[in-house]
């Protein structure tokens, strides 16, 4: 980043600089209050310069969300690899990573999971990032069902059960409603307990014995 005459700056990559600045700003302000012009002033560029990269604030927030999913992938991948071939272990690793990421990166997490009106949801990069973030979960569920260690049915519904449970826990933690678990280590322990109980519920139910009068002759 080089200083130009007149006190402004020339950015080698203003787009990335804006995303980074937005991520920092979101640590202490709401997404609704983010301003492209204010970020431009912070970076020392002309008022119109940010709009050459993002036509609206919603487009910038979509880029922030994409960066959040990238960071989440960096946290998630080694945990999934370490979990090995067991689909249940991988699902529990995914659940733990989701909650830990929310605690470690609450600003990014809030934008990644922001209401659709806040972020430009149709941005191709964001659609791809969301799809990639779900792939590990869907693959593990499909393998678990094929192996008979997860109940049958629509894999997406099982994924929604897992996601909604972990998302609820993550939101409670990021909002400070579970104060004693607000550090990553404690959050991971709580997520591990919750996911373990959840996996028990997602296992196939044993066949119930038929009533005596319906038993085969």
Describe this entry's structure for a reader:
The protein has 217 residues and is mostly helical. Helix content is 62%, strand content 2%. The protein has a two-stranded antiparallel ribbon with strand order 1-2. A hairpin with a 5-residue loop joins strand 1 and strand 2 (9-10). Helix 3 (57-83) packs parallel to helix 6 and helix 6 (124-146) crosses helix 7. The longest helix is centred in the N-terminal third of the chain and has 27 residues, at 57-83. It is elongated and about 65 Å long. Residues 1-9 have low confidence and may be disordered.
What descriptors fit this protein?
elongated, single chain, 2% strand, disordered N terminus, two-stranded antiparallel sheet, mainly alpha, 217 residues
Class by helix and strand content? mainly alpha
Tell me roughly what share of residues is in helical segments.
Answer: 55-70%
Q: Which quaternary structure do these chains form?
A: single chain
Q: Could you give the order of the helices and strands?
A: EEHHHHHHHH
Write out the strand line-up for the largest beta sheet, numbering strands in chain order. Answer: 1-2
Shape: elongated
- Overall pLDDT metric: 86
Tally the beta strands.
2
Strand content: under 5%
How many angstroms separate the termini? 84 Å
Q: In angstroms, what is the radius of gyration? A: 22 Å
User: Can you tell me the residue ranges where pLDDT is under 50 for at least 5 consecutive residues?
Assistant: 1-9
Mind describing the biggest β-sheet? 2 strands, antiparallel
Helical segment count: 8
